[in-house]
Amino acid sequence: MIEKNSKQSDKVFLTILADGKFHQQVEEGTEGAVKREIKDKTTNEVTDTKFELIHDSVKGIITEVTIIEGEYGKNIQITIDTEVISLGVKTPFGEDILKKLPSLDLLKEVILTPYSFLPKGEENKKKGITVYQDGIKVSSYYYDIEKKESINGCPEPENGGKGFDSDDWTNHFNVVRKFMIKEIEKLPVFVEATKEENKEVKGF
User: Inter-axis angle of helices 92-100 and 166-184, to 10 degrees?
Assistant: First the structure.
């Protein structure tokens, strides 16, 4: 777990990969670093090699949230002291954190623990970020689990989604995502991205 360290001066950039872990890119030879090979999806040939430190969790107080327009779409960047977590908003991890940030008391410490696992008997992995505050697991700000309905203004699909095809659902999820990003921009820790930040997104 990465915890708050006020003595640290340089920012540490983290992202979450398919294994459901935080990855921090470092120099080759760094103690504890793991080698990761990047392969071409078509040829399966190795195109790049990275060395990374892997972390299960990040702990601290969220001091800044930024939405950045990157080469492959929007990213949400969350700063916890000197750790900067960068996630694509269309990834399961990015979408999950968009849902939970408004539920937090931003003056208090949080623990972010990503996950990625295949439930028994299912074909698709479950991915997301478990968020703890005051020892309690934080739920989505936009969904009432007991009533099984959207809350706090989250857009509902027209006619409950009846008759929707895959394109209709894609459009609906885009509307919901844009709504959640607008809500993130209302947070007191939100900071508008600079032109320089929009040009270069730290990623893996």
Answer: 50
